[in-house]
From TrEMBL:
Family: Belongs to the thiamine-phosphate synthase family.
Keywords noted in UniProt: Magnesium, Metal-binding, Thiamine biosynthesis, Transferase
Species lineage: Bacteria, Bacillati, Bacillota, Bacilli, Bacillales
Gene Ontology CC annotation, any one: cytoplasm
Protein name from the UniProt record: Thiamine-phosphate synthase
Function recorded in the entry: Condenses 4-methyl-5-(beta-hydroxyethyl)thiazole monophosphate (THZ-P) and 2-methyl-4-amino-5-hydroxymethyl pyrimidine pyrophosphate (HMP-PP) to form thiamine monophosphate (TMP).
Length: 215
């Protein structure tokens, strides 16, 4: 048995190729792992299923090398095909109970939540972790109203399962998110769109742990 549980994750990075400016998916994501990302999600809303599958195989190989869990956004079939560690589902995706029935008890299933009622429902229904956001307005999920750090504070008080703050989080505001009670954060643009991806991850980890990140 491993000393570390996936539940100990601190820095969750989601892919966002629109922010890469010419760099390859595998290069950018390897930089996040070198900088200490300890959970990775493949999220590719604009690609065909075949393209997502190809990326998923690539990221499976990469994350295996770093012993980091790979989560697939939305697509259970892709997660099963590449033996990902789990899936992340939004409020309008396949219901948690159906996903659990298909994937089984060992799969990590994460649920996006935007209100405390959704958070408590997901916890009761057996989610393994929840996303809490968007804390700040973000172009990555445009059109969704920011829940602010008030929601982070509420989740910190009431939710027992692992949860991760997400949405518009940057090195400039992560301190405020941590002060609201978050011990895990997730980001796309602030990380994969940054010039020095590994260094950015190390700075996030330092903020979260008070220590230097891995690598
Ligand atoms: N989910 P960035 S916010 C993918 O609140 C996603 O459920 C959110 O990207 C939620 O770090 C979000 O660039 C976008 O803001 C995160």
């Amino acid at each position: 048995m491993s000393l570390h549980s996936w539940k100990d994750f601190r820095l969750y990075v989601i892919t966002g190729e629109n922010y890469h400016t010419g760099r390859s998916l595998v290069d950018v994501m390897e930089q996040t792992l070198l900088g200490g990302a300890d959970m990775v999600q493949l999220r590719a809303k604009d690609l065909s299923k075949r393209e997502v599958l190809a990326q998923a195989y690539t990221l499976r190989k990469l994350t295996d090398r770093y012993n980091v869990p790979l989560i697939i956004n939305d697509y259970l079939d892709v997660a099963l095909a590449v033996q990902a560690d789990g899936v992340h589902l939004g409020q309008d995706d396949l219901p948690l109970k159906e996903a659990r029935r298909i994937l089984g008890p060992a799969a990590i299933i994460g649920i996006s939540t935007h209100h405390i009622d959704q958070a408590l429902d997901a916890e009761r229904d057996g989610a393994d972790y929840i996303g809490v956001g968007p804390v700040y307005p973000t172009g990555t999920k445009a059109g969704r109203k920011a829940v602010t750090t008030d929601y982070v504070r509420e989740v910190a008080k009431q939710v027992k399962i692992p949860w991760v703050a997400i949405g518009g989080i940057t090195l400039g505001n992560v301190g405020e998110v941590i002060a609201a009670g978050a011990s895990r954060v997730c980001a796309v643009s602030a990380i994969v769109g940054s010039e020095h991806v590994a260094e950015t991850c190390r700075s996030f980890r330092t903020a979260l742990t008070g220590q230097q990140g891995a690598g």
